[in-house]
Amino acid sequence: MSNPISQSPIRPAKRGQVFSWALFDFANTAFYVIILTVGYPLYFKEIIAGSEQGDLLWGSSFSISMIIVALLSPVLGAIADNGAGKKRFLGIFTSICILSTALLFFVYNGMIITGMILLILANIGFEAGLVFYDAFLPEISTEKSYGRVSGYGYALGYAGSLFTLALAYPLYAGGFSEANLLNIRISFLIAAGCFFLFSLPLFFFLPDKQRVSSQKFNSVKAGFERLRSTYKQFPRYRNVARFLFSYFIYIDGVNTIIIFSSIFAHETLKMGIGEIVIFFGMVQTSAIIGSIIFGILADHLGHKRTLSTTLLLWLVIIILAYFVQDKLPFYIIGCLAGIALGSSQSTSRSLMSDITPYEKKTEFFGFYSFFGKASAILGPFVFGIISVYFNQRIAILSIGFFLIAGFILLQRVEEQTKKGSAVDG
């Protein structure tokens, strides 16, 4: 069966459509910053779990959700590539994330299983939806603008984080006192509401270019067939495979830093939740700068060179975090981490688009998502184990091994020199 993408002429997207796509990054970071990095991790550790096993329970919940998403993502990417419609699946998984996030409002002290299940469902919706969201990138950009457009998306996403943090900050002023727990739970509703409101423009204004006349009943079967075909053809795309293997390793370290950063700041550095909100505000501000500047640099200097520089910066951050004792230096480290975060996420996505053949982009972004999600299974679990049996400083230092290995593997990846060169003969 012919590919529906190849039958449609490629037209540049309008600025409003690019903005609608990027605004989804603004929307989903409400979930990202409140549920995965600031509010809910601390609420889960301090109130729901309330035990020394909190790091392990939190890391295990995240890992379980990533196992499920890792198994789903290649199939979902293949289904969408076959023409089932990216926007439809994005809407389904976004709804799952928003609903599960809102239900966290009703999770109280000791409701460990409920708190874990809702986190797992919410993160499945969030991460699985990104398979289809990322796959829109090659449709709204050109080979010369992958880095720039991807950087705009992440920059607007970090602006969304600042917006959400500003809304949540007054609610966190009272810390984890009994009288303030209602306010903290209200912040979960804010995350769900912001995700819902600001995701709407994508569904209203961004067209889904994939159209086929096949029956809906056959879409899943066709998706599995496309997936099987891609596995057989994968030896032809060795350069893509080399990047995905590198990405699998280094993004594990980045993901682990993200989901444990607030817990590390609260327990090891004794920062209050208000201070942590300010800290993440600084991180997101510097991430905006990193995603824009490094996105532009990637288009001029090369995605691989830019990404390699970012991974070296992450290594410096890991070493500094291991030795930090005071809050002020940790704020400075946070600014460096924000720059590295904005660059590593944006440049990874644009490099993947650059080296992947156009007719395989949606399907291969399923693999991109698979490797990103599968990598996040190991890192958080290992961090939780080391933290429980040793301490958080040793746990965070261990992340450096993932970054070093990923950096070494990345050097074997070749950037595009001409259209179609991602296929290795």
By DSSP (H or I, 4+ residues per run), the number of helices equals 15
Low-confidence stretches: 1-10, 418-425
The overall strand count is: 0
Instruction: Calculate the mean pLDDT score and round it.
Output: 83
Structural class: mainly alpha
Which percent range fits the helix content?
over 70%
Radius of gyration: 20 Å
Intertermini distance: 24 Å
| Overall outline | globular
Describe the structure in your own words.
The protein has one domain: MFS general substrate transporter like domains (Growth Hormone, Chain: A), CATH 1.20.1250. Helices cover 79% and strands 0% of the residues. The chain contains 15 helices and no strands. The longest helix is centred in the first third of the chain and has 31 residues, at 54-84. The protein starts with 14 loop residues before the first helix and ends in a 15-residue tail after the last helix. Residues 1-10 and 418-425 have low confidence and may be disordered.
Task: Summarize the model shown.
The protein is an all-alpha fold and 425 residues long. Helices cover 79% and strands 0% of the residues.
SSE blueprint:
Elements: H1 15-37, H2 39-49, H3 54-84, H4 86-103, H5 112-134, H6 137-140, H7 146-172, H8 181-205, H9 219-233, H10 238-267, H11 273-301, H12 303-323, H13 327-355, H14 361-389, H15 392-410
Helix pairs in contact: 1-7, 1-8, 2-3, 3-5, 3-9, 3-14, 4-5, 4-8, 5-14, 7-8, 7-11, 7-13, 10-13, 10-14, 10-15, 11-12, 11-13, 12-13, 12-15, 14-15
